[in-house]
TrEMBL record:
Superkingdom field: Bacteria
GO molecular function annotations of the record: ATP binding; ATP hydrolysis activity
Residue intervals of the ABC transporter domain: 2-239
UniProt KW keywords: ATP-binding, Nucleotide-binding, Transport
Keyword Lipid biosynthesis listed: no
Protein's UniProt name: ATP-binding cassette domain-containing protein
Length: 260
């Protein structure tokens, strides 16, 4: 579980995060949604330690990481898996080498053990051995995303972060990637936090959702609650799609009938 208390981040005179408090549960896919510029990436980077917050607390299973020493922060990095925006694979490394990299950084395994573990997770994300020796430029965007996910889970992380994991993917591949992240969350019992502005992802895997607007937590709930939320900003976000507008009308009608 990751608990965030009154988190603020200021860049010079701009306050980007204005006091966010929330809880991300273990074994669940927790989503952060919001319009472009609402502060999602800055928030996620504060959680992963890439940005130092101005004030507030971030408790990883009770440990306040904002007070960590350099050594404690390094140790925590071994417990975290991250799927970066755009996959961020190393172009000059093969698929297998990319996945093995965190093990070289954070484990005491020998080369054979590292290769075995890397092959195991690559197989888990449904990549076949022919792809293990290829370079990122030789495989599709969807496959690159699977490699990025394999690299994120190779260390058996307790915490899994993904920043816009579907960016640049077609809707079908996006759905497969969402499902994969959800399955891995259950299998590894990770506290998973995903930044997205994809409504399909929200409806697929939004077990808990927080909605940010201008650095403020405007709304929180789950995928069932979001369709009938009465927050204006959430409605704007969700109902940019006509299909969801229709769905909302049906759901509100059902709700009204239930009350009669
Ligand atoms: N290093 C920085 N210095 C100054 N301002 C920054 C910095 N990083 C981000 N910001 C500002 O913080 C705000 C929030 O940015 P952020 O990238 O978190 O938004 P976002 O919700 O992730 O948007 P998107 O969905 O487009 O990625 C933006 O106005 C951005 O310009």
């Amino acid at each position: 579980m990751i608990e965030v208390k009154n988190l603020k981040k200021q860049f010079e005179d701009i306050e980007v995060l204005k006091g966010i408090s929330t809880v991300f549960e273990t074994g669940k896919t927790n989503l952060i949604i919001g319009q472009s510029g609402s502060g999602k990436t800055v928030f996620l980077k504060c959680l992963t330690g890439l940005i130092t917050p101005t004030s507030g607390e971030i408790l990883f299973d009770g440990r306040d990481t904002t007070k960590f020493s350099y050594e404690e922060r390094q140790a925590l990095r071994g417990e975290i898996g991250t799927v970066f925006q755009g996959s961020a694979l190393f172009d000059s490394m093969t698929v297998l080498e990319n996945v093995r990299f965190p093990l070289e950084m954070f484990s005491n395994l020998n080369m054979k053990e590292m290769n075995d573990r890397s092959e195991e997770v690559l197989t888990r994300v449904n990549l076949t051995p022919e792809s293990f020796k290829k370079f990122p430029s030789e495989i599709s965007g969807g496959m690159q995303k699977r490699v990025a996910i394999a690299r994120a889970i190779v260390n058996k992380p307790k915490y899994l972060f993904a920043d816009e994991p579907n960016s640049g993917l077609d809707p079908k591949t996006s759905m497969v990637i969402d499902q994969l992240l959800h399955e891995l969350t259950v299998e590894y019992n990770t506290t998973t936090i995903i930044n997205t502005h994809d409504m399909n992802s929200v409806m697929e895997i939004g077990e808990t959702i927080i909605f940010l607007k201008n650095g403020i937590l405007e709304w929180s709930g789950d995928k069932n609650e979001i369709l009938t939320a009465d927050n204006e900003a959430v409605i704007d976000f969700v109902y940019s799609s006509k299909l969801f507008t229709k769905l909302r009308e049906v759901l509100l009608e059902e709700k009204a009938n239930l009350k009669k």
